[in-house]
């Protein structure tokens, strides 16, 4: 597929009639549309299916087959399509610190560093399934507020090459608009740390492989699917469904069975899969 049809298919998938200008407002529009239309999900991980790392295979899954994916899929697709729109960008790797892990985590998340035409640098991320953060200028203390009214802050915490990273993304907002790892309405919580080191394709493949196969990895130990709403967040975390919209009562309930799960997945998240595939998820194993 050539660049032009690929870009047209992507814009249709995320509900935009045309590519926006390659500026800060355009980046905000593309990332928000991406996350509101392409779900985050790890169903293939839990089914033991291979996770694509080739850009064409990722586009076929997320655009052609209208599936979702996790960060290495989402942000590879976002990077390629932003480049086609005129946004200079490259991928970075990050350590997820959301939920206060006990040890220094590995580099199992990716995000984008975008350089605008005026030279300004911003971070963008359509692949963090636990929350939603709008694009932020790469400036110490930069803040943005998402549609669920959560605040997000970027802080410079170290020199290049130091651990856990040079930059830290933080969040302050309702825990209900997270995938269950958010804990406080009142305190800034760490989301992930990163630096600006160049990333090779092999580094991305290694991060994706660890995140989808290692026994300690989150995606190997839970079932998650989520979608950003213009003013909130909807998620399926194992057998719990949550929907939150700013200014409205939160809805939370248990998922009854595989049929209920399939209905919620299709109606609320936007993923339509056969019942027999979903019935094979470890979610329905005894003791899960």
UniProtKB/TrEMBL annotation:
One Pfam family here: Acetyltransf_2
Highest taxon, organism lineage: Bacteria
UniProt keyword annotations, A-Z: Transferase
MF terms in GO: acetyltransferase activity
Family in the record: Belongs to the arylamine N-acetyltransferase family.
PANTHER family associated with the record: ARYLAMINE N-ACETYLTRANSFERASE 4-RELATED, N-HYDROXYARYLAMINE O-ACETYLTRANSFERASE
Name the record gives this protein: Arylamine N-acetyltransferase
